[in-house]
Amino acid sequence: MLSVENITVCYGQMKALQGVSLEISQGDMVALIGANGSGKSTLMNVISGMIQAVSGEIIWEGRPLKGLSPDNICQAGIIQVPEGRKLFPGMTVEENIIMGAYHPNVRRQAPESLQKVFSTFPRLADRRRQFAGSLSGGEQQMVALGRALMAKPRLLMLDEPSLGLAPKAAAEIFMIIKELNKEGMTILLVSQEVLETLSITTYGYVLENGIMALKGPSRELRENPKVKTSYLGL
Amino acid sequence: MNKAYPVALAILVILLAAFPCIGPEVYYLSFMFSVFMYVILASSWNFIGGYGGYLSFGHAAFFGIGAFATAKLATMLQLPPMLTMLASIPAGGIAALVALIVGYPCLKIRGPYFSVVTLCFAFVVDLAVKNIEFLGGAEGLWLKFMDIPEKTSRTIMYEVMLLLMVVTLAVSWFLGRSRFGTGLTAIRSDEEVAETMAIPTAKLKIQAFVLSAFFPGVAGGLFAYYLGYIHADAVFSINISILIVLMAMFGGGGTWLGPIIGAVILTVVNEGLSTFAQAEIARIIYGALFIVVTIFMPNGIMDFFRKKGGKT
Amino acid sequence: MKENRIKDFSMFLITAVLCGLMLMTPAAGFGAGKTIVIGGSLPLTGAYAETGQWIEKGMRFWADEINTKGGLLGRPVEFKIYDDQSDVGKAVTFAEKVITVDKADLLFGGYPGTAARAVMPVAEKHKYVYVSMGGHMKSFLQGYTYSFGAPPLMGEWWYEGFFQWLATVPAEKRPQKAAVYTINNPVGLSLIDSIDRWTKKLNIKIVINEKYNAPLADATALIVKAKQSQCDILFANGFFPDGVTMMKAAKALDYNPKAIVQGIGSVVPAWVKELGKDGDYVFSGTVLSGQLKYPGNDKLNAYVKKTYNLNEYPLYFGFGYAWMQTLEQAVTGAKTLEQTKIRDWLKKNEVNTIAGSLTFDERGLPAPINFGTQLINGKVELISPKNIQTREPVYPKPAWEK
Amino acid sequence: MDAVLIIQSLISGIMMGMVYALLGVGFSLTWGVMHVIHISHAAFGLIGAYLSYSLLQYCGVDPVVSAAVSVPLLFITACGLYQLLIRPITRAQNIVMASMILTFGLAIILENIMALIWKADPRVLTPTYSSGALIAGPFYFQYPHLVGFGLSVLGITAIYLFLKKTYTGMAVRAAWQQPEAAQLYGVNLYRISMITFALAVSTAGAGGISLALLNSFEPHSHNLWLIYLFLVVIVGGVGNVIGTALAGLIIGVITGLSMAFLPFQWVNLVTFGLLMIFLIFRPHGLIKQEGM
């Protein structure tokens, strides 16, 4: 479904990604793990079109994505939930979620999608008139997820969805992600919570200093001694 | 450090100082006088606006305060014309004092809000001068002129303004290289970070603001003397305030050379255009200059040439 | 770093060369040739653009006329006009440029307010005759010998004509209470003097006497105050924008004093053109009028009728023309372009302009000239003095038509 | 001091303030959303005023009706200008500064083009109702003020509803609050910036018409207007539509009250002085809330 081939990204003189490749197929839930600054967010942003790669190809459903602008990529069905959630602080919860359905392709179904999001996150329905900035971290993440769902993603990319959340809220978010995948959504999950991530995903990639160091089924990665020492602290 | 550089500058200054000796017409002296004046205004604005990132939109206020203070001192103390020029130094002091009083509350405000507060300040001063008879009133003030040939008096004015410009630029150059200047630049890039780095931001800002008010104050005094008659509209005009900002940013704020280039180019081009083209057309060309320069050199002329220089 | 410095320095040089080039060229353009160069600056853009452009038109009309007649002292005349952008500093610099670089043979006059005040000392220092409207009375009290108001625009005299007429109105019909609103600038302030003098003489009580600063965004409060104090004469001593705002407020609030007297806002053609009927019955003064029987006025009227479709030449058009007439006669009379001789000739002799015959005193001023005017049916009518009256004034002012 | 004077002067102050608010609301949006300080904003307002002047003079079209012509016209022009001038400078390190210098140049150009077309003479917009008034007891509501006020309320409400209720409007707010996330959800920043800019310019046109109903204008009048709209925007909080409207009201009230209580000579001084003090104590404007 999505294949990233040999991507290289530079920030000035510094290479943020070097020849990185990645493969996701329909219905998969794939993990991308790595330390801070290893290039996970950069890869996400390259796929979303926010950052242009120096070389390499990104193929989405047989079509090359390179050079397309973020809004076109959004239209193609790739939706990112960015790190830190990046909600619209001056807009209400409802407005934030509706903004997810901005793209004309999905705008028509917005009312039904909204109903669905509110039924998935009943807590948000009660707070629909509040400003997004006034919510708790967990609730904000739900808004971010809800907003992404409105866009009818075919590939949902989540960047650190549990960052800064209380353990209970984080667990809840992971539950929901798992649920979404069960319903058939393809997901790329970036997280520092390696154990949790590898336990819900089917396949995993490990980025180290801009290079794809390891890849393999999540189960195997969990047993990998290198992953164990570097990321699981075992 | 390139040694040829200061030497070349020194030669340039000497050449400028010697310019009246070749016997140019009075107009050239007057025109150069106004170029120097704008260089002083733009460069001293640059202390707070360019280095510190606090875009003052009311700098004409200090210019005007200097002008009126000089005229007022001259008439109150019955100064002879030559001493009037010296009166512009205490007048600059008055401008600096006002800057100290106003700067204290205003410099706590950041970004565009600071710009608008200073804009309001300029209006308040302008209207105060017009409304209060003691400060000059709406009639304006006349200054006595020197009892010497016109050429001599303009030459004196030229040399004095040149001297003031050299002093201003020396301060500006020094600022760019001192810890003071580094502190200001840190404030511009991120004031909160600067604070955590134990930079006394409040103190630095006030000092820079006061300094940036002093030189326009003195220049205003000389300008009043140059005009012979001053009126609030002539020295407090919002156009002057905006022009000062544009000159500095046009050349490239935050560098000591940028404001000089901006001031020189804009003054010369404006004067030249008035000479060659029909009035409205001249203004349109002048306006287009801003657009073209911004589109091709969005970060100022200095930055553009720096980059070009870096590549070759 | 080293590279940068060199670049910086080359920038410096480029600017210096550019600067030099700009300055050198104009000097080369004008020789001492056969033509007489008359130089100066006018506000062709910016706040005083309207005034400046009319003055320019008046001057150019004069130049065309004299050139077809064979020129001044047998030499054709040519203007060197700079646009000072309504900036006093620029006006001074350009005056010096005209005198010292262009070496103009004659200097032409400027526009009212502050610029004339600053250019007069320049003319004095360079010993150039400066014929202009001057900057009201104060500017003529500075002891300049080369400046002439020929004719001047003198705020201190502006209401003379009107008051002379008002003095002929029987005492019981005269207004009793006056509201005086004055714009806070040299022009406005110069108007106050004659109001003070005459209201005392005519026993009119000044109930409201206030100044305001431009811009006057709204005049409602001013008019309400005047109305509440039952002032039956309104002095609106201002320019066009504030004058219009006040008139509109007066009509909307249905304020009907016996007379409305306006400063210099109502003398521009735009007043009649833009306000139409609402601008009617306003009293003011003037120095020049196409309706005066002085020679030349008919010619000017015919020209503006043909070129600008105006019934009467605008004040500033007339000024531009009249100053040039004065200069022309002085040059012809002195038979030289030597400034001091021209000045001395002017001090001793009489000139005949479209504003009548003028002789100048020590200060460079003629005897006070002013004609009372009133706008009637969109036309400026002369109401005073009696001998030039074109129409009986409409007094008291009719109530606003609704 | 009597009540009639105070209330009358408050009424006209408020009406005037709202007109400034309409003129300022677009300025506020371009500043907030695009970080472009649009110095030529008021010059576009002046173009609106001149267009409606010409339409009234030569076709007898009422200024309010002519807004229907000049507003779309300005919208299209502004779209072109955005592509031509504003978009290239979005790569500047400091968009605020670059945009100020560029639009300052644009303002000079526009002013002198107007001077060439319409000449330097002052103009007054005089529709048939220009000096009539609605009389309610001791109070007078001048028709031009009423119409200008109405146009302003209408314009500001329209902008508010646009931002609040339409997808495009929400995208404008989103792009301003969180440009990155907005892009991820399909917002094309350039397109949104263009719409914002064009919308701002067209409200300026409407604001210019309203202001022309109150005061006379000349090609250089925009310099004066710019100062007032700057104040309205800053007092209201940059990018804040409701705040801008409120600021218009407040400036109107300050002016109105000072007109009633002070010698007129001090009105402008007090207005600017109070605004300066206000800004020192509330540097972020009336409403410190991102969004509307």
Q: How would you explain this protein's 3D organization?
A:
The complex is a heterotetramer of chains A (234), B (312), C (402) and D (292). Chain A has 234 residues and is of the alpha/beta class. Chain A contains eleven helices and ten strands. Helix content of chain A is 39%, strand content 26%. In chain A, the strands form two sheets. Chain A has a six-stranded mixed sheet, sandwiched between helices. In chain A, strand 1 and strand 2 (14-24) form a beta hairpin. With 312 residues, chain B is mainly α. Chain B has a domain at 23-236. A two-stranded antiparallel sheet of chain B has the order 1-2. In chain B, helix 12 (257-276) packs antiparallel against helix 13 (279-296). Helices cover 44% and strands 17% of the residues of chain C. Chain C is globular and about 65 Å long. The relative contact order of chain C is 0.12. Chains in contact: A-D, B-C, B-D, C-D. Chains B and C meet through helix 1, helix 2, helix 5, helix 9 and helix 12 of B and helix 1, helix 3, helix 4 and helix 7 of C.
Quick recap:
Chain C has 402 residues and is an alpha/beta fold. Helix content of chain C is 44%, strand content 17%.
> Any idea what the shape of chain B is?
globular
Structural class of chain B: mainly alpha
- Beta fraction of chain C: 15-25%
Radius of gyration of chain C: 23 Å
User: How many β-strand stretches of chain B?
Assistant: 2
| Uncertain segments of chain B | none
User: Structural class, from helix and strand content of chain C?
Assistant: alpha/beta
Arrangement of strands in the largest sheet of chain B: 1-2
User: How helical, in percent, are the residues of chain B?
Assistant: over 70%
State the end-to-end distance of chain B.
20 Å
The end-to-end distance of chain C, rounded to whole angstroms, is 76 Å
Counting structural domains of chain C, the number is: 2
| Shape, principal axes of CA atoms of chain C | globular
Mean of all residue-level pLDDT scores of chain C: 89
Biggest sheet descriptor of chain C: 7 strands, mixed
Main sheet: strand order of chain C: 7-6-8-9-10-13-14
How many strands, what sense, and barrel or not for the largest sheet of chain B? 2 strands, antiparallel
What oligomeric arrangement do these chains adopt?
A: heterotetramer
Top CATH class of the largest domain in chain C? Alpha Beta
- Helix tally of chain C equals 13
